[in-house]
Amino acid sequence: MRPILPSLNALRAxxxxxxxxxxxxxxxxxxxxxxxxxxxxxxxxxxxxxxLFERHNRRVMLTPAARAxxxxxxxxxxxxxxATARYGLSEAVSRTxxxxxxxxxxxxxxxxxxEKFRTRHPDVEVRIETSNEPVESLKDxxxxxxxxxxxxxxxxxxxxxxxxxxxxxxxxxLSERLPLHTPEDMRRHTLLHTSSLPRxxxxxxxxxxxxxxxxxxVLTFDHFYLTLQAAVDGMGVAMGPTALVAxxxxxxxxxxxxxxxxxxxxxxxxxxxxxxxxxxxxxxxRSWLEHEGDAFKSEHEV
Length: 302
Description:
Elements: H1 8-20, H2 23-30, H3 34-48, E1 53-56, E2 59-62, H4 64-86, E3 95-101, H5 103-120, E4 124-130, E5 144-149, E6 156-162, E7 165-169, H6 172-177, E8 190-194, H7 200-207, E9 217-221, H8 224-232, E10 237-241, H9 242-251, E11 263-264, E12 267-273, H10 280-299
Parallel strand pairs: 3-4, 3-5, 8-9, 8-10
Antiparallel strand pairs: 1-2, 5-12, 6-12, 7-10, 7-11
Keywords: DNA-binding, Transcription, Transcription regulation
InterPro entries: LysR-type_TF_proteobact-type, LysR_HTH_N, LysR_subst-bd, WH-like_DNA-bd_sf, WH_DNA-bd_sf
Protein name: Transcriptional regulator
């Protein structure tokens, strides 16, 4: 007789949670809920008759015995995956997902994080093209469209995954040369505009109570990523979306001279044709985007 083994689902949940040190991250990787991971781990603990994790706020730590157990079973999952691919028993050796997203979002938020998805899912090829075309015009050409929202389009399933606000940002050198202590100090600066976002600066100045302010100069670009690059290069002050400038602020390429007011902005959402919404690759990538959005909110909030 074959030896009795615990549930494979319970072992997968334990392996992912132990390797990542987080039930939440394990849930995102396996595309299940946090509660499902907790339940499977409890089932395995009951089966083994011993605890596997010590809970510490948002993180979990393996017990010494569980750490040794993970070291034994982890390589077995790798061998199982390799064997399945070698003998052609997986759904496909290479799978492709086509995504259309705005250029600035892709350049400043998606691409810096995409390697994490590729590391977890090396069999999935994500093809990204950038544009600002209306969602409805892209239905037949892409599996997923990323745009602002939330908006409703007939025949599409929409899900938000990343929130942001806008606030003034500039280079540290410019801030040092022409300090910005109050919003009124903007009179001495060049305001960087984007032609497709004509209301951003007027709306922020109105919120700051200085709607009639006249800056030293105005410089307008036709693409938003050029506006942000001009700010990095010290050419003036731009209205920076918090999600798209967080990495620059953390790295010291930009500074935010004022904590407020913050201008509300639309969320980033995924739009998928109803007939595709249940496809495994779409569910996989959507879940990953939402996990990254949650991680940004808790770890990179500006």
